[in-house]
Amino acid sequence: MSDLSYDEVHPVVLPTCHVSELLVREQHLLMRHAGVSALISSLRGSYWIFGLRRLAKRVKRGCVPCQRQDTRACNAPVAPLPKSRVTEAPPFAVTGIDFAGPVFCVDEPRKKLYVCLFTCAVTRAVHVELVDSLSLEDFMLALRRFAARRGMPTEIYSDNAATLKGADSLLQRQFGHLAPAWKFIVPLSPWWGGWWERLIRSVKSGLRKALGKRCLTRIELETLLSEVESCINSRPLVYAGDDADATEPLTPSHFLIGRGSGFQPGEQLDPAAAARQSLPARARLRKERMDRFWEVWSSAYLRQLPTSVRQFRHHGSLRVGSVVLIHEKNVPRLMWPVGVVVRLYKGSDGVVRSADLRTAKGVRTRAIQCLHDLECD
């Protein structure tokens, strides 16, 4: 004879029905929202319910307090690249803008300086400017310096910083329909701007490695930033082989200055090459080389871009009216606000990737990776 009790030896046999579900719900509350395995273990002492594990999972999914604590964030596959990023265009015609910093100099040790990064979406070139602050006036001066050397972009991408939104409004008032088309990513979703955030990391890494613990004057800092810019623009966009007959890999500098920006011996210019008769031939040669650059860009660089990102997979099914928990950084989960989906935004492939939410403090726009669906089955 075993030491089991009579109820454990002769449990009450129940089918999957409403009474069984009520028993599971009561036990779930008595055990302070226990998990599926704990529910099964406690109920097996008195009841033998057919399909108990499936029933316990359903009860737990239907518990709102459990959903607030356990539900995962929604997710969606990475959107296909927009047409402007995979179409031939002059360098910096499509530009991403972001800030990094603060940095300091010995001239004004208490003053915070910032790095403004302009990133070409097509050729992946960068342009770096040092600004005195994050104010609209200082940014507009940096934009004017950038436009004077690189040309005014036709499209600009950025996050939702107040300075950048103010710059968009100012350009619209000054240039009207001739102003660049400024496109803002969803608030609090830096991965939407990964193609410029990754190069922000490269600039920071270059500064850390070159500076160490030293502090430079302002002019030395500007010089160092220009050198970091040149190094980043000399990185290969395609595979760099080590074979003896391997060709020079394509870099952003090839689109900017027609050659790599590394430390290479300069070419000996023939005085006859500057003659008037040879200029058309040199112009044709330059055009042929640029066409070759674009051919390598389309055949090698574009095909090497990843087709998917592992951590972005479909999860969740939001719809208008869904109640969601809105993730906020550095805030305890129990303090996250609750919102109701009022509008869904779909990409060109029909996949929902952001939504408008009605909350107690007004309407907010968030990426679905910041939303935890509270709808119970």
Walkthrough of the structure:
The protein is of the alpha/beta class. Helices cover 36% and strands 18% of the residues. It contains eleven helices and twelve strands. It has helices at 6-9, 18-30, 36-43, 52-61, 64-70, 136-150, 162-175, 194-211, 218-233, 252-257, 279-304; strands spanning 12-14, 47-49, 94-103, 113-120, 126-131, 155-158, 181-184, 323-326, 338-346, 352-359, 362-367, 371-373. A five-stranded mixed beta sheet has the order 5-4-3-6-7, with helices on both faces. Strands 11-10-9-8-12 form a five-stranded antiparallel beta sheet, with no helix packed on it. Strands 1-2 form a two-stranded parallel sheet. α2 (18-30) packs across α4 (52-61), α3 (36-43) packs across α4 (52-61) and α8 crosses α9. The longest helix has 26 residues, at 279-304. The relative contact order is 0.12. The mean pLDDT is 85.
Outline the secondary-structure elements.
Blueprint: H1 6-9, E1 12-14, H2 18-30, H3 36-43, E2 47-49, H4 52-61, H5 64-70, E3 94-103, E4 113-120, E5 126-131, H6 136-150, E6 155-158, H7 162-175, E7 181-184, H8 194-211, H9 218-233, H10 252-257, H11 279-304, E8 323-326, E9 338-346, E10 352-359, E11 362-367, E12 371-373
Helix pairs in contact: 2-4, 3-4, 8-9
Total number of beta strands: 12
Uncertain residue ranges: none
**Rg for CA atoms:** 30 Å
- Helix fraction by DSSP (H/I, runs of at least 4): 25-40%
Mean pLDDT: 85
Q: Into which percentage range does the β-strand content fall?
A: 15-25%
DSSP summary: helix tally:
11
Major sheet summary line: 5 strands, mixed
**Shape label:** elongated
Main sheet: strand order: 5-4-3-6-7
Oligomer: single chain
Order of helices and strands: HEHHEHHEEEHEHEHHHHEEEEE
What distance lies between the first and last C-alpha atoms, to the nearest angstrom? Answer: 44 Å
Structural class: alpha/beta
